[in-house]
């Protein structure tokens, strides 16, 4: 157990409905729940569901959930407004389904991943319907973004388009325009979904809520 996953474990009450996303801290948390038979578990991540199977846990797909009490997930970059980029896994559409079902959507972060601004080294990822790829790439270029098409497809068989900028100062407006463009199904920017993060500061786990920073 890490400090972060150990703290997260204390938030899970008997009988809770819990969604488990991805990342190393969530994997540690999942292992810690192996002996719990009193929980109703879900996950947007096939890897986490497979881990549950190995541990003897019945973890159902996130889209099968009724409203859940807690959803835990990882993130690639989070800023002080608790906006998050969850880009590398390419399953953000399903992760947002999990977030929308949760009373609390909590990110488990390694030390240093929570920063004043989003990390420009982390891309904004779009899930795009195949017929619209050419038009979306052209539109992203017109917005000043570098666009790389992943070889891998999304879980639904759609294309994943990674977008890069010198900085993400204007990411909210960029994201607004991109998700409104025909053929774009979802983006990896989580603007309002995150309720808190659990991370390590000064050698101890802390929970930081939206508005604390």
Question: Secondary-structure map with pairings?
Answer:
Blueprint: H1 3-9, E1 17-20, H2 24-32, E2 40-43, H3 46-55, E3 59-61, E4 68-73, E5 77-79, E6 84-85, H4 92-101, E7 102-108, E8 114-115, E9 124-128, H5 133-142, E10 146-153, E11 159-164, H6 171-179, E12 184-187, E13 189-190, E14 196-201, E15 204-209
Parallel strand pairs: 1-2, 1-4, 2-3, 4-7, 5-8, 7-14
Antiparallel strand pairs: 5-6, 6-13, 9-11, 9-12, 10-11, 14-15
Helix pairs in contact: 1-2, 2-3
Quickly describe the structure.
With 213 residues, this protein is of the alpha/beta class.
Helix content: 25-40%
Low-confidence stretches: none
* Total domain count: 2
Radius of gyration: 17 Å
CATH class type of the largest domain? Alpha Beta
Question: Beta-strand percentage?
Answer: 25-35%
Overall pLDDT? 95
CATH topology of the largest domain: Rossmann fold
EC number: 5.3.1.6
Protein name: ribose-5-phosphate isomerase
Keywords: Isomerase
Pfam families: Rib_5-P_isom_A
What does it look like?
By secondary structure, this protein is an alpha/beta fold. The chain contains 6 helices and 15 strands. The strands form 3 sheets. A 7-stranded mixed β-sheet has the order 3-2-1-4-7-14-15, with helices on both faces. Strands 8-5-6-13 form a 4-stranded mixed β-sheet, with no helix packed on it. The model has no long low-confidence stretch (mean pLDDT about 95).
